[in-house]
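Predicting holo structure, guanosine-5',3'-tetraphosphate bound.
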Amino acid sequence: MATEATTSDAGSTRSLREEVERRRTFAIISHPDAGKTTLTEKLLLFGGAVREAGAVRARRAEKHATSDWLELEKQRGISVSSSVMHFDHDGFRVNILDTPGHKDFSEDTYRTLTAADSAVMLIDAAKGVENQTRKLFEVCRMRGIPIFTFVNKMDRFGRDPLELMGEIEEVLGIDAVPVNWPVGEGKDFRGVYDRLNEKLILFSGGNHGRDLLDEDIVEGGLGSDAFAKALGDQAEPLAESLELLDGAGAEFSLDRVSKGELTPMFFGSALTNFGVSPFLDRFLEMAPCPPARESDRGPIDPASDAFSGFVFKIQANMDRDHRDRVAFVRVCSGRFSKGNTTRHVRSKKPIRMANSTLLMGRDRAEMAEAFAGDVIGLFDPGVFGIGDTLCDEGDFNFPGIPSFSPECFVRVEVAAVKKRKSLEKGIDQLVQEGAVQLFREPGGGSATLILGAVGQLQFDVFRHRLQGEYGVEPGLTPLDYRLARWPQGEFDEDIFRFSERVRIFEDRDRRPVLLAKSEWDLKRIEEKHPELKLAETADPSRLTSAS
Ligand code: G4P
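Done. Tokens:
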């Protein structure tokens, strides 16, 4: 048990456990354009991490204009990397793990979710549950982390809130309980009714910052004169909706929220800053602090003295002049102190954590101290792989990070035979970093190398880096496979002998994997061979954290 006192940034003295308990580490999941950048920015404003609205967007734009750290990023005008942002608010240390919001998202987006303790699902009120949100939600569900829903853009006409609630329940298979409920929408959007405290929070159209004005809060409850006066014609429809909710909706239960079975729902408008502050306050109350993480030696207490963490992402070329690589490490226990030495379990080598950086967007700052829930960036001399564990004591391994099913595949070729060695070296390194997944013919034959990725963007990054770092111009021929599945347990490989549409390969760790041209092809195989158990990730059991 940890009793050691720590002195943190604000100069106050906290125990390790207090440091853990005040941390909230989460990711925002959404489909592009739902308003993730806007919401993130508003959250950072409350925490004082940025001073003006528009700063995140402006900084992104400015970076695109001036930075050439990754030429590709500039060419495509998108953010390839995920970043980590933090701020302090009401005594909490809030870590937001940003996931790229572009439609070309990559496996990094999934991996980042393995470092989060909860997720905020952002939904555009006019569009409902969109494709990318659904995929990211599935990863959160596999991990069983709590998911909070923020329905955004209520200042515009959207879909009926009851219908949205029904869609979340039906499409995602999770109960939804509104914590607040919108009054009107679009130009008639008046505010939200706080169901837990039975008060109205009115939207007066101004810039709703951290503090709401007294006149924006109406107490007294439904049926009171104060409500009737504030709402006029809208009092009755609100009362009807709430009656429906009370009668038909699921019961709120924090226990079910923590198991990921029930999502608390909030309504608001990130752009006009409305509903963001009530959301943040409730979210911080309800969201979990870093839990004990499962390891192959049992659960690891986040407040234990010994430092531990795992690598969930490797980002290369953050500084083009230095061709460097940074490993993003999620701290799981103990205290990280700059200059300390820990162990890299896979290589059994000591690692001095000298050059740690705190990553704030793409700006770097030296980081002196970090606790469970925080993310540190360690310069990677080429030893780290995705999922690697670092720990001071015990040589245990965290479950690692599974390979998610790619959706695009290419065959890789290189014209010049003499470049073959460089190609293999490059592939080895980039696969270890998790830039792409590698598949081969069964039996170790290296003649056919197939690469898989969640989005096309990963292949662009791969090609760019092979050219820049290894001097190889690879030929990438698109293949018409669309998904990968990992068979579990024993199975008969002859099933696939004559199939052109589902073929068996080996992944990087020599596990058998099926590449299929469509869901339909897989379904047919599964119907014919019900004994065959197929997993969407290489090792789904590796996803969970100890409860
Ligand atoms: P993303 O990161 O999820 O891709 O979304 P982003 O925040 O960039 O927002 C996408 C668009 O939606 C932006 O408009 C943004 O201003 C708008 N938006 C975000 N939140 C709200 C909201 O609560 N209400 C309304 N009405 N709009 C919202 P844009 O025109 O694409 O960009 P910009 O010109 O505003 O920068």
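Residues 30, 32-38, 57, 101, 152-153, 155-156, 269-271 surround guanosine-5',3'-tetraphosphate (CB under 6 Å).
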